[in-house]
Write a structure and sequence with these properties.
This protein has 345 residues and is mainly alpha-helical. Helices cover 78% and strands 0% of the residues.
Length: 345
């Protein structure tokens, strides 16, 4: 009698959705790539180096401000008078003394800030490039060496800062305030629907510029060459998600920084959350590009794990149960044969 066949397990709801919708299957593949490549771990590292790099950047900014104020004694005097008129008592004089000492030490502060910013920036860029490379699932070749790697990271960091500066400048040119000034100059500020048109235009310009920046990051910062077409689609997804996150974050920060605790810790926490969410957006978009159909077709297949053959040796002491039965059977046959021979004689 043959045993009844086991019922086949039905696919789950996620498997049915993946089989039905190609876009959902792509999203799930991207999520699997993101998790397998430790995307959250790399996003946390990028956030750490982002926050850590702010302090030397601020030192450089203070040094630049010190050089500017040292060359403008009239402006420096106006600032000191403003401080003394706003803050009363000895505290105003302490602020003025602190500002003057910072201006006097602007050279040393600038040198230390530049050196620290370069060191922290290289760590940030190395972490970002390694994260993007892992999201693409690339097989790394032989490393080119420490000095050559650092020079490559320095060139990538310089290109990133230039691209960011161009992005900020284009965003400022496409802002709604600047467009309103242009309309006022043209005398078109009272046209019906101009406010809504300006907001939509500013939003589209912001998405377009962010799209260009994210596409450059996803396509050019990995340590190996990647598909630029897939990077463009992934950059568009990241840009739209980034714009939605900016709108939500602006509303949230307005409600958080109203209290004393929010005013003290809100900017730092907001900056950490902003850096972390942005890093996750870029890494997930990169994983989405890496798991596209055209990229999966040429993805390198890793060799299987080496097989391990373990011979099984079983040692039995004595003849065992089967041996005893066989010996008893042989003995019985032998005794029967001997008895028949004895009977014949």
């Amino acid at each position: 009698m043959t045993p009844p066949a086991e019922p086949e397990s039905k696919p789950g709801i996620l498997d049915r959705l993946r089989a039905r919708y190609r876009w959902f299957d792509h999203v799930m593949r991207a999520q699997e790539r993101y998790q397998d490549s430790k995307g959250d771990f790399y996003a946390a590292g990028i956030t750490y180096f982002t926050i850590f790099s702010l302090f030397p950047v601020l030192m450089v900014a203070f040094a630049i401000g010190g050089f500017f104020l040292a060359s403008q004694p009239g402006l420096l005097a106006d600032i000191e008078d403003k401080i003394k008129s706003t803050v009363s008592g000895d505290f105003a004089q302490q602020l003025v003394t602190l500002m003057e000492s910072a201006i006097e030490s602007r050279t040393s502060v600038g040198i230390i800030g530049l050196a620290t910013a370069a060191w922290a920036g290289l760590g940030w860029m190395a972490n970002l490039r390694e994260a993007l490379t892992q999201m693409w699932g690339q097989l790394r070749h032989e490393p080119p060496g420490f000095l050559r790697t650092k020079l490559s990271d320095l060139a990538a960091m310089t290109g990133f800062f230039l691209a960011s500066a161009v992005t900020i400048a284009l965003t400022a040119l496409g802002s709604s305030d600047l467009m309103m000034h242009v309309l006022e100059w043209l005398g078109l500020q009272n046209v019906p629907g101009v406010d809504l048109t300006l907001r939509v235009t500013s939003l589209l310009v912001s998405v377009l510029i962010t799209w260009l920046l994210f596409t450059w990051v996803i396509a050019r910062l990995p340590r190996e060459s990647v598909s630029f077409r897939s990077a463009m689609r992934a950059g568009l997804i990241a840009a739209v998600g980034f714009e939605i996150f900016k709108q939500v974050a602006s509303i949230y920060l307005k409600s958080v920084v109203t209290g004393p605790a929010g005013a003290t810790f809100g900017p730092v926490l907001g900056l950490m959350v902003f850096a972390y969410i942005t890093a996750r957006l870029i890494l997930f978009a990169t994983a989405w590009a890496a798991t596209a159909t055209e990229n999966l077709g040429v993805a390198p297949v890793e060799p299987p794990a080496p097989a391990q053959i373990t011979p099984r040796v079983q040692i039995r002491e004595g003849i065992g149960a089967r041996g005893a039965l066989a010996a008893a059977a042989v003995g019985a046959l032998g005794a029967l044969g001997l008895s028949r021979l004895a009977g014949r004689r």
